[in-house]
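task queued by scheduler; priority normal; single chain, no ligands, no partner chains; default sampling; output format set to structure tokens
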Amino acid sequence: MKITVMINNDQFITLDVDSNEAVENVKALLEVETRVSIQQQQLFFNGNQIDNANRLIAIGVKDGDLLTMVSNASSSSASTNYMSLNSDGSAVNPGAFQQHVRGDSNLMSQLLQNDPEFAQAVLGNDINKLQNILRGRHQQKSELRRKQEEELALMYADPFDVESQKKIEAAIRQKGIDENWEAALEYNPEAFARVVMLYVDMEVNGIPLKAFVDSGAQSTIISKTCAERCGLLRLLDERYKGVAHGVGTSEILGRIHVAPIKIGNVFYHCSFVVLDAPNMEFLFGLDMLRKHQCIIDLKDNVLRVGGGEVSVPFLQEKDIPSSYLDEERFSKKDSPSVSGTTGTTERSVSLPIGGQSSETVRSGSSTQGPGYEAKITKLVELGFGRDAVIQALMLFNGNEEQAAGYLFGG
């Protein structure tokens, strides 16, 4: 049941207690809330002082009743000074505050049982941590008091007043949100933790890399600096320039058609889109995941390649470079499509950046030729998606046979 205690006629505290609770235990709770020791408290109910040994039910205290607490005037002023708090809830003299609480065995036993976090801060040597907890508790109490005042105001508000109805509606909605949040904390706490993306160790042309595995990325991507470090920039085909769209835009410098990558102890052939993107070193995209029949096994936390012939574990957070985990580097705003040139062909290529879902690949119609749409139709009839067909034709400058081979091989 809930009872309200009026402190020295100027402060109200609501306590959730059992009806069979002893008065002494109620005083112990008040000691934590008010920093007034049990010995300095006098509790009154209906004008009569109640003894520590009494139980609430025995003296007639019911749910919603009001008790009054008066501090003993003969208490030590030095003790009061030790417990003095600033307006933000922090201790005026944190060292003296800490020593005073430590010296009160009854208070410490209550804290260890009911508030272990605060008790550990008192027993520890970090004054700043103690002060931060005091400020946090003060803020929580202020917020709770504000909510109680708002609820009380709504109880006595005119139910036919439009503004009051809006406030009541907002309070009901917020209550539902708070209950949903509390349920999530209990049943789905992992939803509040940061999800670490999937990385594996690979070697590209003999150079070890941390590869970002992203099934939401349309193509496998390597940055210019990474390609240079791996000795692959000399193979860059600049005919495949363009612009990649995802979260922000990046310039496509070209394509490296084939290079060896090592996953586990097995070598595979891989092709890359080369981006001028400092925030993405190497991304293992859907094209190569499909080509090499990869399985993202989240149960065993491994990437299986070649239908399971090779299994490599996904890296733990501690093994991923901190620069890869810097989320601010991936927070660019979406930008519109930008056209680039590839020899005599204009193209605007949309590829995902940083794990965002891909857009379609679009080509300028001026240089596609009259039979371009017929090629698309023919390949689509073979069972491939239109977007994939357009991309394949663009990769092979409209060569229908090479595009078909690429699609069947992927």
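post-processing summary
- The chain has four domains: 2-135, 159-193, 199-330, 368-409.
- The domain at 199-330 is CATH 2.40.70.10 (Cathepsin D, subunit A; domain 1).
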